[in-house]
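Problem 12. The chain below contains 534 residues. Write out its predicted structure in token notation.
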Amino acid sequence: MSAPLAPRRVGYAAAAMSRHFNTAGPCKPELHFMLPPDRRLPGVRELIDQQGYFVLHAPRQVGKTTALLSLGAALTAEGRYAALLVSMETGAAFPDDVGAAEHAILAEWRRSARHQLPADLQPPPWPDTLPGSRIGAALEAWSASSARPLVVFLDEIDALRDNVLLSVLRQLRAGHRSRPAGFPWALGLVGLRDVRDYKVASGGSEHLHTASPFNIKVRSLTMREFTADEVAELYAQHTTDTGQRFDDEALRQAFAHTQGQPWLVNALAYVVTTELKPDRATSIAMADIDRARDVLVDRQDTHLDSLAERLRDPRVRAVIEPMIQGESLAALAPDDLRFVLDLGLVRERADGGVEVANPIYREIIARQLTVTMRASLPAMVPTWLAADGRIDFDRLLEAFVACWVQHGEAMLASSPYNEAAPHLVMMAFLHRVVNGGGRIDREYAIGSKRLDLCVAHRSERLGIEVKTWRDADKAKDPTIDGLTQLDGYLARIGVGDGWLVLFDQRKGAPVLPERQAVETVTTAGGRRVKVVRL
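Solution.
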């Protein structure tokens, strides 16, 4: 029986480095602050002991690769299994050539095995066999020659497409009956999506829709986000190593901004500890977390940029556009919703509804969808600024109405999401107003029939509710409902000033100069707000 793995050797430079928060690639305990990876993999060890074949799917950058690399190393070190994680992604470069994809995959497997397994558990020479059978033959030969039961995690499996993907899945199913002597003891497919949603061009459909040809799976698992306590636990490792504390309010704010999304949790802490507060003698406050959040949103690093690019996908638009408007998802195809959930862009609420996964993603969505509109706005003289630099909200409203009258139709035409165009125009204008001197908090959710905005500038805040009146609403004027909703929103965020902005999008609506109106009303809660009809 093989000896446990020797401790990994690191170069002198790596050994001398202090640990830091990781935002690129798998975490390494000698370099990065990290939580026990298998904590968020409940039941995986039991499935492995039961010779299970399973699927692990979760959004990108939540720790799948880190967790399974760590689990594989632990299982091998314990002496029970030869366990490792290998990537399938290299095969994606050959979507129409099964044989070439198999060669690329197997070359990557051998390289991974050299780094993860001791010499006596390395795979044998791969069998010389026909294209379309090389993956199965390699796993058969490796299992037969291994002194221990072989456990393999196939990472990035859903990077494969069409015939290459179908071939690999069929080879796995065919070999399953020969386990454990002639095929891996246990095996996991690891990717963004569940096996039924892997993309193929076969049988008139672009998805498998059932587990076949991988109907040998025991379970489909996913990985949860960090809890608030785990965020505090992770950040406490930095405090232990450096002495620099995160205030309690900073910890709560970090969780509020990220909702525990692992990449965001690490990215916030990396920015604040390396760029904003590198002096370890200073503690980290809530305001520092807010600043780090703004840096991430403005910089839009790789993870956030890739999510922003997804907004062009019709399946993503089918979810996000009605969400911005507060409309329902009644006509949405279930596959579209499942796709956006799997991306991690939205999440299910406890009541069964869906919402954008966290406030940072919410801001990224708004920024990305309004970038052309913001660039299209003419130069604006800030007539809304008082002599002391504060915003005069009455003047701001006058400026917005004037901007809408002059440029609204052109801006609607430039919107990437037509149905949500008025909401996006409003956000584009306000972003230009507060850029560099304030912020906008946004709330939008399925079925709410509105978009809520809170404009913060210095010590002042303004609550805004945006609604549209469409032909589908028939004769019902949404003003009464809007005032009730705005009243509740202002009470919840503790703001006294508010606008209800109503865009009349009915086909038979009066022309803009005739329907344009601004009036001051008192809500049922006693708040004086502006009702703006455009």
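Discussion. The domain at 35-221 is CATH 3.40.50.300 (Rossmann fold). Students who got a different answer should revisit the alignment rule from Section 12.3.
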